[in-house]
Design goal:
Layout (H helix, E strand, L loop, with lengths): L1 H11 L3 H17 L3 H26 L1 H5 L6 H29 L4 H54 L6 H31 L4
Helix pairs in contact: 1-3, 1-5, 2-3, 3-5, 3-6, 5-6, 5-7, 6-7
InterPro entries: ABC2_memb-like (IPR025699)
Keywords: Membrane, Transmembrane, Transmembrane helix
Pfam family, one: ABC2_membrane_5
Length: 201
């Protein structure tokens, strides 16, 4: 498992310069616009994209077929992508946390915003991985875009209705969010394992 994750990190290392340029670019935009949340959101999005790119690398190089000739199980291949996603998002969380504190945000607000951004990133990874394992990166990307478009339209439409959450619900939102992520994680991993088990290499 460790070897699989190191392999992914090594492959992603090839994109270091591009990622660094993007990070600096969005960092400057965030500073000039006085909006530290923008940087955190973009950084989280970039980490999610790196997870997708790692699967694209594997597909292009036919890595999966080769890996299964070694003492590596299909479950290992699947779980390594989830672990990679968590590690990358934790890096984004740490960078976002330090950046917000450096811009003068208070600790409580910084922690709350960073946790929300982390949970959003985790949910995105949990949502997209089963589709990528099922349809591959090329087809999966279109399906993912469609899903996020529909979700965005639903949230926008709900906002226009004037719908507001009660204070009682908002007070429970942190706990509910964590429970949703745990449930989504169980469903996502189970779905990915089932898909990958029957996948032809």
């Amino acid at each position: 498992m460790k070897g699989l994750i190191l392999k992914d990190l090594y492959n992603l290392k090839k994109q270091n310069k591009i990622i660094l340029i993007l990070v600096i670019f969005y960092l400057i935009i965030s500073l000039t616009s006085n909006d530290p949340s923008f940087f955190g959101g973009i950084l989280t999005f970039l980490m999610v994209m790196l997870v997708i790119n790692s699967i694209a690398y594997d597909e292009k190089s036919k890595w999966e077929s080769y890996a299964l000739t070694m003492p590596v199980s299909r479950s290992d291949l699947v779980l390594s992508k989830y672990i990679l996603g968590v590690l990358l998002l934790l890096v984004a969380f740490a960078a976002n946390f330090v950046f917000r504190l450096a811009t003068g945000a208070n600790l409580a607000e910084t922690l709350a915003v960073c946790v929300v951004t982390l949970l959003a990133g985790l949910f995105a990874v949990l949502l997209i991985l089963p589709f990528l394992f099922k349809f591959g990166v090329e087809k999966g990307r279109y399906i993912i875009i469609l899903i996020f478009f529909i979700l965005t339209m639903l949230v926008t439409a709900l906002g226009k209705t004037g719908f507001k959450l009660s204070d009682e619900f908002l007070s429970l939102l942190p706990v509910l969010s964590i429970l949703v992520i745990i449930l989504a994680g169980v469903i996502s991993v189970a779905a990915s394992l089932a898909i990958y088990k029957n996948k032809e290499m």
